[in-house]
């Protein structure tokens, strides 16, 4: 057992939490769309073929925004293939995932699914094989009210009203050699600028994200951001970050795995620094926002037949990572870190939603279930509302070769003045010791009552949720919280993620 403390003060306000931090990602990849969210003939499917059980789990997950249709898929996609009568839509080779794309789900079907689950769409345009012309046409098709060939084409497809898609990604991972039509930073920066310009002329109300590097450890990280922003800084609102957490090849310890929270914090802070240095060079007061629009654990189903299968199959089983309790703890810690960067980080999309590196798994014709990583995401999405407060943490810790001494405690605190509720998110990274934690919520109410307290802890860090045992790793009630005025006292199990929500009853 060791002691730790967490103090927040109402006046030490970091930023309002943007609820779009709880976004997800749906790509035409493997069984994410087909035989994932969409499975005509499934007992729970609606008239459009979308699975009702997956829709219900998506709502329970609490996702607020969804990126679509890729990913790498985006860089070879013709949006025109996915609109109009389904029986006339072409089947195409998808060069991103070496699969056959049937185009039975396209813009309108996906928008109907977004409405069904109550989630905001984030669409992307193809800046791989295509460019500004198709991008502005796609936007006109989607968002222009009517009276032009493309907007009237949409209306003839049954959507009288504009689709009102506000958030658009300017391509995907254009720095990556695996990308269909990879670009140099100057090539991409120029095309991103011109595409952004045209798209804003079509619909000035949209928000635009430019591609940052596809990973922090890309050899061109930093140079890419600087050159791209040199071209398009004034024309975009967000710069994207992508990160997939792996177990380091030389040191597979859980502690090193958990230290990726700090690595990704550095990634965010370095990217902010680069964006701000471009602003300085341009004598601009603009502060670019960040969109972490792909993130998750992904290191097992990442090679060989997990990436590519012979014969151009339809909806093959690709990237079907099975998550452990250890992964869920890292996801929880990552969410605390995201909240603690809420001043610049406004959007984040867990990649992906269903079957493909996903919190939700399905069997064709069978059940849908929650992977371990579902739980911390759902808890954070449910309880994090309001203002993020700056946490002051005192905790013993562990030595990490990259970051030095790191505290066992990772924490974030979000306070909702409207309801008087304060949510505290806590990860105990000690693998062996219980944490005796004192929490001070200064200035947030003289008397508090407990609303909810849950912990995610599993003695076996390798435990998984499977079709036969879907609830092996699931949150439990966190008992033993003592509340005295502004002070909370609780014992956190080793290797546990915890959520404590209290409400002010006397201010
Ligand atoms: O999410 C899987 C893939 O990872 C995406 O298509 C791509 O953008 C990233 O490399």
Tags for this entry?
507 residues; alpha/beta; seven-stranded antiparallel beta sheet; 10 helices; binds alpha-L-arabinofuranose
Set out the fold topology:
Layout: E1 2-9, E2 13-16, E3 23-25, H1 52-61, E4 65-68, E5 92-94, E6 99-101, H2 107-117, E7 120-125, H3 132-143, H4 149-156, E8 167-170, H5 185-202, E9 207-210, H6 223-232, E10 238-245, H7 254-258, H8 260-281, E11 289-297, H9 325-339, E12 345-351, E13 360-362, E14 368-370, H10 374-383, E15 387-389, E16 392-394, E17 397-400, E18 404-407, E19 409-416, E20 421-428, E21 435-442, E22 447-457, E23 476-477, E24 482-484, E25 487-492, E26 496-506
Parallel strand pairs: 1-21, 3-4, 3-12, 4-7, 7-8, 8-9, 9-10, 10-11, 11-12
Antiparallel strand pairs: 1-16, 2-15, 5-6, 13-14, 15-19, 17-18, 19-20, 20-26, 21-25, 22-23, 22-26, 24-25
The structure holds alpha-L-arabinofuranose.
**Uncertain regions spanning at least 5 consecutive residues:** none
Which radius of gyration do the C-alpha atoms yield?
A: 23 Å
What's the β-strand tally?
A: 26
| Ligands (ions, cofactors included) | alpha-L-arabinofuranose
């Amino acid at each position: 057992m060791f002691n730790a403390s967490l103090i927040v003060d109402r006046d030490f306000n970091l930023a309002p939490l943007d609820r779009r931090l709880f976004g997800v990602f749906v790509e035409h990849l493997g069984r994410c769309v087909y035989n994932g969210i969409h499975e005509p003939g499934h007992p729970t499917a609606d008239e459009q073929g979308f699975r009702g059980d997956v829709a219900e789990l998506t709502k329970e997950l609490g996702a607020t925004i969804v990126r679509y249709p890729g990913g790498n898929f985006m860089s070879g996609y013709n949006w025109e293939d996915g609109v109009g009568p389904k029986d006339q839509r072409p089947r195409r080779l998808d060069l991103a995932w070496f699969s056959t794309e049937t185009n039975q789900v396209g813009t309108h079907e996906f928008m109907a699914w977004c409405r069904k689950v109550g989630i905001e769409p984030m669409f992307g345009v193809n800046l791989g094989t295509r460019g500004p012309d198709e991008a502005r046409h796609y936007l006109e098709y989607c968002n222009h009210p009517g009276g032009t060939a493309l907007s009237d084409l949409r209306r003839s497809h049954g959507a009288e009203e504009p689709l009102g898609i506000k958030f658009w990604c300017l391509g995907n991972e254009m720095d990556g050699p695996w990308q269909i039509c990879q670009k140099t930073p100057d090539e991409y920066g120029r095309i991103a600028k011109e595409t952004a310009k045209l798209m804003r002329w079509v619909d000035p109300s949209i928000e635009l994200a430019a591609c940052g590097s596809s990973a922090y450890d890309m050899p061109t990280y930093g140079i890419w951001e600087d050159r791209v922003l040199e071209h398009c800084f004034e024309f975009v609102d967000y710069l994207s970050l992508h990160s997939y957490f792996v177990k380091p090849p030389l040191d597979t310890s859980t502690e090193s795995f958990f230290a990726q929270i700090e690595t990704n914090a550095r990634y965010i802070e370095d990217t902010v620094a680069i964006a701000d240095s471009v602003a300085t060079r341009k004598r601009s007061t603009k502060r670019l926002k960040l969109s972490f629009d792909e993130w998750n654990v992904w290191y097992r189903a990442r090679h060989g037949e997990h990436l590519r299968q012979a014969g151009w199959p339809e909806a093959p089983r690709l990237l079907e990572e099975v998550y452990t309790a250890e992964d869920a703890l890292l996801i929880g810690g990552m969410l605390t870190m995201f909240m603690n960067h809420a001043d610049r980080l406004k959007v984040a999309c867990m990649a992906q939603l269903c079957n493909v590196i996903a919190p939700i798994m399905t069997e064709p014709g069978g059940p849908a279930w929650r992977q371990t990583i579902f739980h911390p995401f759902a808890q954070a999405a449910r309880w994090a509302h309001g203002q993020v407060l700056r946490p002051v943490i005192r905790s013993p810790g562990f030595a990490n070769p990259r970051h030095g001494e790191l505290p066992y405690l990772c924490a974030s605190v979000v306070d909702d003045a409207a309801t008087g509720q304060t949510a505290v998110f806590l990860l105990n990274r000690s693998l062996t010791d219980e944490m005796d934690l004192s929490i001070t919520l200064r200035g947030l109410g003289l008397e508090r009552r407990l609303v909810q307290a849950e912990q995610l802890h599993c003695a076996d860090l390798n435990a998984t949720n499977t079709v036969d045992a879907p609830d092996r790793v699931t949150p439990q009630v966190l008992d033993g919280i003592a509340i005295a005025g502004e002070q909370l006292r609780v014992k956190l199990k080793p290797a546990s993620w915890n959520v404590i929500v209290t409400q002010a009853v006397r201010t």
